[in-house]
Amino acid sequence: MAHEAQSRRTLGSLLVLLTGSLIWASCGGNGDAFAGGLSLGSREVQVALGAHHRVKAPVEKRLRFEGTTKRLYLHRLRHRRWCAQFPYPRRFGFVWNWNDRAGEGIIKEAETKQKYLVIRDEIGACQYNHKTLACAEMVEFFATDEVDEVAGLPLAKNVTGPMGGYTKTSNEYLNMMRRAGMPKHWQDDFKQYHHQEGEWWLWGRWRNGLKHNTFKPPEMLAKTDPRYKTDEDE
Question: Which of these ranges, 32-36, 46-50, 175-179, has the smallest mean pLDDT?
Answer without folding.
Answer: 32-36
